[in-house]
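For the sake of transparency, this paper describes our internal protein records without simplification. The tokens are whole numbers drawn from a learned vocabulary of local backbone shapes. One such record is reproduced below, unchanged from the form in which we store it.

. . .
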Amino acid sequence: MSVGAHAVTSNVIPRWDRELLFEILDNIHDVVLVIDSETTIVYANEAYARILGVPVEKVLGRRLDSIEPESKTITALRTGKVSNNGRYYLDSLKIDVVGSSFPLYHGKKIIGAVSIFKNITEVVQLNRELELTKGVADYLKERLEQWEQIPLSFKEYVGQNSRLKETLILAAKVALTDSTVLILGESGVGKEVLARAVHSSSRRKDMPLIKVNCAAIPENLIESELFGYEEGAFTGAKKGGKLGKFELAHGGTIFLDEIGDMSLTMQAKLLRVLQEKEFERVGGTKTIKVDVRVIAATNRDLKNMIEKETFRRDLYYRLYIVPLYLTPLRERKDDLLVLAKTFLDQFAVVVGHKLTLSPQVVRLLQDYDWPGNIRELQNVLEHASIVCSNGHIEVHHMPAHMLPVHEDSESCIDKPHDVKEILARVEKELILSALATYDNRTQAMKALGISRGAFYDKLRRYGIEE
């Protein structure tokens, strides 16, 4: 027997009543919510409590417009429009849901509204995390592409340190312009190498790169060195005068190293050249125009010097257009063994045989603070390559100033029979030695005879930079 457009009775289900309909609604997996025309919540199924975590009895009889005034259920009630598979946020419960809402009619009059929805907060969160992961992956891919695209001149820098790569990528970008560059970093970090790379990657690469060490030139000579002089400008002046470094660099680049050691008087004259691109030779009156790109470098704290009034603020801002900071070696120990191997390969050609480092030397290099940075590392390894006769560099081949005052033997004396500690120390030294000997980590782990997972686990355990 038919009881409506969408239902019939049968011998098993002889009638449709409220109890049966409620049982059906309560077994629906999604939330079912019904409000009347005044937005009073008149029904919520069992899924409401299970999915939203709120007991049904706490919401029955309450007005939805006081709980969730922007609810799609209220929108369906007031507009008479159906919303299908819409996603929205329940501010009262701080969750994301997706579902449908539709008005409830009695005849032609809207007497309420129904919403059927499910909680998708976890799905939304997973989607956000996926988007974040994708964003990070895209960023890393972009950084890798930038790194792969930098000119070969920057590949003179050995290493994979992330901060170094950031600097080199920026340097490669600024190299394509004529902007003034200021290279900052301690002595020995490779400021001149970077200046050379910027010049070699610029449109001026076929023109001269002229280097001036501002700290090495006496105060009474630096002006004539930079700007040249006319015949008879001073006692001892050459006949016919002399071209200065700025004239020699015309069309190319001038590298002003140790610019923080320049006097205030010379700073003022340099500022004029940077601003006007012109100067007069010492003893001359003719104004000379030049087309020169300026790269400056210093290991001094220029901001501190400005406060002490030993460096001009206006010159600082004229130079500080694109600052490039080179990280000291003690802060990029992850590159130390790669750098060491590069230098050893160079010195091996000179001495005529292969050079390797003992595990104790590797540990010494890792523990040392490197105040002289890469230049000191190069000098130390050159010293060792000369002193060492058989190609295997031991601790006693190293310069005396590097040797520790207290050896690790003290800890061995404290625990002379601690097998685990002794084995761990030997294992760490073997790993460090393999990293220093082989070109890459795959070769190192193969020589050690351990799996990739075990290899990286030991790197983390022993605090060896990954």
In short: Residues 330-461 form a domain with the Helicase, Ruva Protein; domain 3 fold (CATH 1.10.8.60).
